[in-house]
Design brief:
Layout lengths: L2 H40 L5 H28 L9 H35 L7 H48 L1
Helix pairs in contact: 1-2, 1-3, 1-4, 2-3, 3-4
Length: 175
């Protein structure tokens, strides 16, 4: 297998991992929104403000995830004629993911505050359920963050090893 093809496969793997991860989180968020709406509607005397705030939260979260996904898709268009294109692509994805997850951490903090505000008027029995859903959504994002970070670290390690092997092969060829 040619080095360029191997490198491209590593980058393509990470692109696909990011796409699948985003699709999964968006789908999970959509299902959580539907279930949350059903649960809130099933509980009697839930103030309209609570219903609106939970709906707004899920809509904003979905919009943010789609924005992040489109940014990743746009930034990963790489000129494969460049020798260092795979490494640059991994670096772009790594830099973006750090920025995106920093933003995501702010969103998680805001969602916790919004959840606390939204549940203030709910019966005490319903509050733990809302907190469980909020934590589940935030934990899925953290899991995705961890898996993407590990995947990028592994890819960089493989690309570095590949460069070292290629360098050794060139050095032997010139002797």
């Amino acid at each position: 297998m040619e080095t360029k093809d191997y490198s491209k496969q590593i980058v393509d793997f990470n692109k696909n991992a990011a796409k699948i991860g985003f699709d999964t989180i968006i789908a999970f968020s959509g299902q959580a929104a539907k279930l949350t709406e059903s649960l809130v509607n099933a509980v009697p005397n839930v103030p309209e403000e609570v219903k609106k705030s939970s709906s707004m939260f899920f809509k904003e979260q979905e919009k943010s995830l789609k924005n992040m996904q489109s940014y990743v898709d746009g930034q990963l268009s790489v000129d494969w004629t460049s020798q260092d294109a795979p490494t640059k692509s991994i670096e772009v994805l790594e830099q973006f993911s750090k920025q995106a997850f920093s933003q995501a951490n702010s969103i998680k903090d805001e969602s916790k505050q919004l959840t606390e505000k939204a549940t203030a008027q709910m019966p005490e029995e319903a509050k733990p359920l809302v907190n469980i859903w909020n934590d589940a959504i935030n934990n899925s994002l953290s899991l995705f963050q961890d898996s993407l970070t590990k995947s990028l670290e592994l890819s960089k390690e493989l690309l570095n090893k590949e460069s070292a092997v290629k360098g050794e092969a060139k050095a032997k060829a010139t002797k």
